[in-house]
Design goal:
The chain is of the alpha+beta class. 41% of the residues lie in helices and 12% in strands. Among the domains are: 10-91, DNA-3-methyladenine glycosylase AlkA, N-terminal domain (TATA-Binding Protein, 2-Layer Sandwich), CATH 3.30.310.20; 120-235, Orthogonal Bundle (Endonuclease III, domain 1).
């Protein structure tokens, strides 16, 4: 599809109610993500498909779908992916929590779905950037690198939106450019190694989620947390639990037990909710779970690697 062409009034329907904004929220990497923008009722996103870049604008269109406009050579390919993006493959019917807080959150947010982008490398790079650092620093690194090495978004995208770099470009980014973006050598090496395997990584979407995560974790620099973050977005895995997250165990603990938990305690407590543990975490967050954690103790430091 030529970059000057877009599809108007394309309606996507999914089997159950979907709230567009909350479903796609995990794909946004900070308020100034150059690949994701919310403009009133519309969600704008930019992606790099196998067939090329695409810009798409989504708006809610009834309780079970959305309306889409698409620009760029990747439009036809992205169009096929839209139902999965809106949670068409996310079956919530087996989710039957017993805890009153989860029951209430599920009642309040019945249309929160688990998205599935099908783009593994595109989810992997920002997840690596978020390893062991404050989110503010990781989002700034992502914004700088995408803006510096990506390309302008096709179509009438909001100002500043960019297509993320291709795997070939990520492989060639010099070490000093990662340094300028406040990315330490370990994370930079992980991104470059993953870029070298990008074609193989994309095929993981065809594997069962547990097997796909196991293969991800076999890569140097990719641990349990990073693999889960990718699985949540690229595979639409409603059970992928981000073990090792700096805040998550405490959020789950204070939301469901009224006190702190460590990772082992969180895993044990959420075990009965398989295969919907990530769904439960999303509902906890949507219902204000992060605000329930007492504001005391040291905050995650914002590390600046550029002076080292």
């Amino acid at each position: 599809m030529p970059t000057s062409t877009f599809t108007t009034d394309t309606r996507i329907r999914v089997p159950w109610p979907v709230d567009l904004a909350s479903t796609l929220l995990p794909l946004q990497r900070g308020a100034w993500d150059p690949c994701h923008r919310t403009d009133g009722a519309a969600v704008w996103r930019v992606s790099r498909m196998e067939s090329g870049p695409v810009t798409y604008r989504l708006t809610q269109d009834g309780p079970n779908g959305a309306r889409a406009q698409l620009w760029g050579p990747g439009s036809a390919e992205l169009h096929e992916q839209l139902p999965a993006l809106l949670g068409a493959h996310d079956d919530p019917s087996g989710f039957a929590p017993e805890h009153p807080a989860l029951v209430e959150a599920h009642r309040l947010f019945p249309a929160l779905r688990i998205t599935r982008t099908g783009r593994v490398f595109e989810s992997l790079v920002p997840a690596v950037l978020e390893q062991r650092v404050h989110g503010v620093a990781a989002f700034a690194s992502w914004r700088r690198l995408v803006t510096r090495f990506g390309e302008p978004a096709p179509g009438p995208a909001p100002t500043g939106m960019c297509v993320p770099p291709s795997a070939q470009v990520w492989r060639r980014i010099p070490s000093w450019e990662f340094h300028k973006a406040n990315v330490d050598p370990a994370r930079a090496r992980t991104i470059v190694r993953c870029a070298q395997l990008a074609d193989r990584l994309e095929r993981l979407c065809d594997d069962p989620p547990d097997e796909a995560q196991r293969k991800l974790r076999s890569l140097p620099g990719i641990g349990v947390w990073t693999a889960a973050e990718v699985a949540q977005r690229a595979f639409g895995d409603a059970d992928a639990l981000s073990v090792g997250d700096y805040h998550l165990a405490n959020v789950v603990g204070w939301s469901l037990l009224g006190g702190p938990l460590d990772d082992d305690g969180m895993v044990e407590y959420l075990e009965p909710l398989r295969p919907h543990r990530y769904r439960a975490v999303r509902l906890i967050a949507a219902s204000g779970g992060y605000s329930r954690v007492p504001k005391r103790g040291p905050r995650t430091p914002i590390t600046d690697h550029r002076g080292r």
